[in-house]
Design goal:
single chain, 777 residues, alpha+beta
Length: 777
């Protein structure tokens, strides 16, 4: 054992001693050992402090601690923090102060000694040496200009190094990509006659020094070493120097440390009875402040995803140009132009080529020009997609400005307003029914539900498909908010104007996405409940008339618009026209198969993630079809079951028990409401998807509704549990929120594939973020 290892071991032991002393001084335990440690804490900490300073001095002067050269500084900081905390006499908030101190020391230890463990990789007999590129055997590489000569495969081979290699550093850049990928072959004492091919690999990011050095686990002396890389057409890869045994210096990541430290504080607050682990009605204000901040974060994340789809490597993007667009897509332009011309058919006329096809709905016969995913009926083009967003945004904008509203910003706008309404609706629901539920559970339920909505799949590729999804999202969340705050259920006087706004929003939802009509049907149960409350308030049946007008008139008006639109296009008020689509399948002849239905249920609800060795360490796999022996369309992969993204869904397993335990005289009716909104409607939508095939973004139509029903059941069971069981359920909910954050991030990451689709600068930022967690590389 060399002096470096001994000194480093002493440093770790000193840190452990500091941690033990700190934990003893902040503990409520009064055992003899703990009391003895407290009594001698100042003396012990003084010794630790002196040793820490001595290690720091030795590590920076006399002894080479490789990448851990300045690690003793963190021991000094930890010692000073422990000294301050152990000297506290004030008892107020002592448990919080104790936790902060403990968490600080633990997070710092993890940051320094775990995430930076490669900094000790060169303890031993390693000599730093820069290899001479001019003497290397090179293929397609010029040692004078330090660049590849042409596109394609290049190698740089160093013969006769004959020394131990603990790290390999390559100073390099790419002219067109975020990084340069190297394959490394070596011969060493265990395999000297021929190369061990691809024994190591490196992805070196431009201008990110830490990624340009990798730890190597070779045996004995390395004899020969060969670097291989490949350049695309027009790409210039510059390799300025190659160095072996360059220390991997300790890097204290403030971002990583704060993620651990602040995360631990949040978990502490969620478990503490004087903070968030008490009745929601006592912490209503705190929950709403945190919920508002979380909602703003999600809005910012939505903006990030939108911008990722806009900004490209050529740097020509302009926000001003976005809002002065002279072209658009099927919803943002084609329907707008048709309506301005006073017609429901689209302006472009089908060519004779497509009209002469024997069956134009058969994809295999359409070997000519036509408008993809449009409706063809009686020799005219129509649009299947809802006119709600056209009437609400795209048409007015074009009439006022003469330009077409950009799809990407429409989807972002619909998405963030929908996120806001979902938070408001959930908190309004909590105000009425979750008052005696722990504030921590209420807050975590909101976070899980918001992260799992699926609206984040709509931002990056914002076409007319995503416009339909996002506009449906805003109308259903807004409708839910006004429905809840109308007081048709729960306490409070029924507000007619709010029920009118609710049915207007839900009716607009049908004009956005016809499948959302199921929620309009479910809302009739709520309208009925409001009517009963009205009659209970005043024993006069006449009071019901204005209420029913407010509740049902929006449906009548908006429904009339939809049936007129259907009749104007197809001569049938109930025909939405999907069977006339020029798309992936001939819907006029497509047959129902239960197997196709089950594919949707499995992929949306149950499909599980796969482990991966690279960030984010799991992947949402391509949708499983279970060998359908027939044609089933998959629009987008990244299948991950809602049960993994929102574990509280398991609460449905306690539905029968919660019903039996309930003493509410209206429990049968409330059970019907939960079943209708949170089970029947979502399942009806999933069932209907069999014909269109699997698309990840479709979960926007039903995900949060399913989660809400599960939360209602889970919170009821929590209230009826024993105190120790409540504590465990709270802990389980915290873990579920953490898993939800990871799983939803994984699905978004897999769906968007940012390392392939984002621009070079953003790809580099993502890889740099990934390296915070891939600390072994």
């Amino acid at each position: 054992m060399n002096i470096q290892t001994v000194l480093f071991a002493v440093e770790v032991l000193v840190y452990l001693c500091i941690a033990v002393i700190l934990f003893a001084c902040t503990s409520t335990d009064n055992s003899p050992l703990t009391a003895k440690i407290r009594k001698n804490s100042k003396k012990a900490l003084s010794i630790c402090g002196i040793l820490s300073i001595l290690i720091t001095v030795l590590g920076t002067t006399a002894i080479d601690l490789s990448g851990y050269k300045y690690s003793g500084v963190f021991n000094v900081i930890a010692c000073a923090a422990a000294f301050l905390v152990c000297g506290l006499k004030e008892e107020k908030h002592r448990d919080l102060k104790a936790f902060l101190a403990r968490s600080f020391v633990v997070c710092m230890a993890v940051e320094v000694f775990v995430f930076n463990f490669n900094s000790s990789h060169l303890f031993g007999d390693y000599t730093e040496k820069t290899l001479d590129l001019s003497t290397a055997v090179a293929q397609n590489y010029d040692a004078v200009s330090n660049t590849n000569m042409t596109e394609g495969y290049s190698t740089i081979e160093f013969i006769g190094i004959n020394m131990p290699v603990g790290t390999l550093s390559v100073d390099c850049t790419s002219s067109t990509k975020r990084s340069v990928k190297f394959s490394i072959d070596i011969t060493d004492d265990t395999n000297s006659a021929s190369y061990r091919s691809n024994i190591a690999a490196m992805e070196a990011l431009n201008d990110y020094t830490r990624t340009q050095t990798i730890p190597c686990n070779f045996s004995g002396n390395v004899h020969d070493l060969k670097l291989s890389f490949s350049a695309d057409a027009g790409e210039v890869i510059t390799v300025r120097n190659v160095t072996v045994n360059k220390p991997i210096m300790l890097h204290f990541s403030l971002i990583r440390f704060l993620m651990m430290f602040l995360g631990s504080i949040f978990v502490f607050a969620l478990r503490h009875k004087e903070m968030l682990y008490c009745d929601y009605e006592k912490r209503r204000k705190s929950v709403k402040v945190i919920a508002s901040c979380f909602t703003l974060v999600l809005m910012g994340f939505s903006l990030y995803l939108t911008m990722a789809g806009k900004i490209t490597d050529n740097g020509t993007w302009s926000l001003k140009d976005d809002f002065r667009m002279t072209t658009g897509n099927q919803i943002s332009q084609e329907i707008v132009d048709a309506f301005e011309n006073g017609s429901v058919e689209l302006n472009e006329k089908p060519g004779q080529d497509i009209l002469s096809v024997e069956n134009p709905y058969d994809w295999s016969q359409r070997n000519c020009y036509y408008l993809w995913d449009h409706l063809l009926y009686n020799g005219k083009y129509y649009s299947y997609y809802g006119i709600g967003p056209v009437l609400a945004l795209f048409l007015p904008y074009h009439m006022i400005t003469g330009f077409y509203f950009p799809s990407c910003w429409a989807v972002w706008l619909f998405g963030v307003i929908g996120i806001l309404f979902l938070t408001k609706a959930y908190l309004a629901f909590a105000d009425r029914f979750f008052g005696k539920t722990a504030a921590s559970l209420v807050l975590l339920g909101l976070m899980i539900m918001q992260m799992s909505t699926g609206i984040y799949f709509c931002y990056f590729h914002a076409n007319f498909y995503e416009i339909a999804q996002a506009s449906g999202f805003i109308t259903t969340t807004a409708g839910a908010f006004f429905l809840i705050t109308s007081n048709v259920i729960g306490e409070g006087k029924v507000k007619n104007w709010r029920i009118a706004l609710s049915t207007f929003c839900l009716g607009m939802g049908v004009l956005c996405r016809p499948t959302l009509a199921v929620y309009c049907i479910a809302s009739l149960f709520f309208i009925y409940a409001g009517m009963k409350k009205k009659l209970a308030e005043k024993k006069d049946k006449r009071i019901v008339v204005p209420y029913l007008l407010c509740a049902l008139l929006p449906y009548v008006v908006l429904g009339s618009v939809q049936v007129w639109y259907n009749y104007a296009r197809f001569g049938n008020p109930l025909d939405f026209g999907i069977q006339y689509s020029l798309t992936i399948n001939d819907f006029t002849k497509a047959q129902y198969h239960t197997h196709f239905v089950l594919i949707g249920f499995f992929n949306y609800l149950l499909s599980f993630p796969s482990f991966a060795e690279n960030f984010p360490f799991f992947t949402a796999d391509y949708a499983k079809t279970f060998q359908p022996n027939g044609y089933y369309f998959i629009a987008t992969g990244a299948s991950l079951g809602l049960i993994w993204r929102a574990l509280p869904i398991l609460g449905y397993g306690q539905a029968v028990r919660s019903y039996k335990l309930s003493e509410n005289k209206d429990k049968r009716f409330y059970a019907l409401l939960i079943f209708a909104v949170c089970i029947a409607c979502p399942f009806a939508i999933i069932f209907s998807i069999w014909e269109s095939g699997f698309g990840t973004r479709y979960c926007v139509d039903f995900a949060w509704q399913i989660i809400l029903g599960a939360l209602v059941i889970s919170f009821f069971i929590w209230r009826r549990s024993q105190e120790n069981t409540k504590v465990h359920l709270n802990t389980l909910m915290i873990a579920s929120a953490g898993i939800s954050l990871v799983m939803n991030f994984i699905q978004i990451f897999t769906y968007e594939n940012p390392l392939e689709q984002y621009n070079t600068m953003w790809q580099q930022d993502i890889v740099a973020f990934a390296r915070l967690f891939e600390f072994w590389k």
